[in-house]
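When time allows, look over one protein, given below as sequence and C-alpha cells. The question is which stretches look regular and which look disordered:
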Amino acid sequence: MIGCLAGLVVKSGHVKADDMVVDKVYHPYVLPLEREVEWRLLSRQNDTGNVLAQRLGLGWSLTETMTVEGYAIGERDPDDNFDMAGYEAEVRWQLVEQGRYWADWGLLFEYEKRHKESAYEATVGLLFEKEFGRNSLTLNAFIAREWGSMVSNGWEAEFRAQYRYRWISAFQPAIEVYTGEDFVGVGPAVIGLHRFQGQKQLKWEIGFVTELSQVSKDHSFRLALEFEF
C-alpha cells in the first residue's frame, strides 16, 4: 500500500525552505496497521529573511514494522507566486521490538525531487530511543546525498536529539538539539498525546529552537499535529 501526502510550503524573503535543519525528531516505532494524518508548521526567522512552511500528510504501514509516506510540496516565492515545488517519499522501519533490548532502533529512508528541476536528494537515517523511568532520550543521525544540475552535488550530515520527561500523556516537556551544515540549535519543546477508542490517538508537538553557532539572529518555531487511526 502506498501512502499519499499533500504538503504546502509558504515562504517569504530569500531563505529557502529546504535549507531548514529544524523539522522533526523521529521515533523508531511503528504501530501495526497504522494510518496517520499529519500537519506540520515550521517558521524560521533570521537576518536574511523569513520562512513559513506547512505540511499536510497521509501515510500507511506496509507491515507491522514498516510504514510509508509520500509528500507533495509547494512553495510561494517573494512575488507571491505559488506552484508545485517538489515530491518526497519516506519509509520508516522499526528494527527491534519495543522494550525487548537495552534500546530501541529504527531506520528512515527519504527520497526527494524538485518539481521540473534537476535536483534530487536521498537520505538515510538511524533512529535511537532509550526509556528510563519517565524519561526518554531520542537520537536521529542522517546522511543525505544531493545531486543534479540545479544543486551542488555532495554529502550532508544532520543530527537531532530530544530529551523528554513523560510527566502525563497530555504534557511532556522536552529539550531538543538540531545540528547540520553551519547550524547548531537548541530549545524547549512540549509533546502531548490523547488516546481515543482502539488504536486512535492524537499527538501534538510545539518547539522553539535558537541557533547557537552564529552571532546573528536565527530562531525556528515548529508545531505539529498527528492523528493515528
